[in-house]
Amino acid sequence: MELSTADLESSRQAARSEREREVQQEEGGDVKLVITLPGGEKLNQSFKTGVTVAYVKALVAQQAGLDFGKLRLLLGGKPLIDPLSLADCPGIEPGREVAVEVALV
């Protein structure tokens, strides 16, 4: 079976499109987190729903000068678990604005 140059290029383009679609699925859509710090200050930050809770915590710790090891993120009073992605957390969906609280332990 012989592939023409046009067939080969068409196959390559289809493979590229499929890879791009898979990457977009893994990264997820954008969600805006309104993060309330212990002193009441708010941080507004957009994230892809594919990032982990630990990634968000690290960014918050860096921006707010807090100790990562003592920082907890809460959604509706319930802790968000570090290794989970935001997409795995109930109540966090692409296109939404979600209020998250920071607690120090």
Notes on the protein architecture:
This protein has 105 residues and is an alpha+beta fold. The chain has a single domain, classed as Ubiquitin-like (UB roll). 33% of the residues lie in helices and 28% in strands. The protein is built from two helices and five strands. It has a five-stranded mixed β-sheet with strand order 2-1-5-3-4, covered by helices on one side. β1 and β2 form a beta hairpin. The longest helix is centred in the N-terminal third of the chain and has 23 residues. It is elongated, with a radius of gyration of 19 Å. The termini are far apart.
Taken together, the total number of domains comes to: 1
Number of helices: 2
Question: Can you count the beta strands?
Answer: 5
- The fourth-level CATH homologous superfamily is Phosphatidylinositol 3-kinase Catalytic Subunit, Chain A, domain 1
The backbone outline, from C-alpha atoms, is elongated
- Share of helix, binned: 25-40%
Structural class: alpha+beta
- What is the CATH class name? Alpha Beta
- In whole angstroms, how far apart are the ends? 66 Å
The ordered string of helix (H) and strand (E) elements is HEEHEEE
**Which fold name fills CATH's third level, the topology?**
Ubiquitin-like (UB roll)
Question: On the 0-100 scale, what is the average pLDDT?
Answer: 89
Q: Biggest sheet, in brief?
A: 5 strands, mixed
List keywords for this structure.
105 residues, alpha+beta, Ubiquitin-like (UB roll), 5-stranded mixed beta sheet, 2 helices, 5 strands
